[in-house]
Design brief:
By secondary structure, this protein is mainly beta. Helix content is about 0%, strand content about 25%. The chain is built from no helices and four strands. The strands form two sheets. Strands 1-2 form a two-stranded antiparallel ribbon. Strands 3-4 form a two-stranded antiparallel sheet. It is elongated, with a radius of gyration of 12 Å.
Length: about 55
């Protein structure tokens, strides 16, 4: 069974760290970053801890 971190909700099923049985991340911590120089809302951010399956 994977580690389920109930402090980090995630619905990205294509990530290696996504818990298969529920929408949580299995990492202890994640890095959030921006891909834009001028932030325009939540769509301007990315999970830098994403790791494709």
């Amino acid at each position: 069974m994977e580690n389920i971190n109930r402090s980090i909700e995630c619905s990205v099923e294509d990530c290696r760290h996504h818990c298969r049985e529920c929408d949580y991340c299995s990492l202890d911590k994640i890095m959030i970053g921006s891909h834009m120089t001028l932030m325009q809302g939540e769509r301007s951010t990315d999970c830098r801890s994403f790791d494709a399956k």
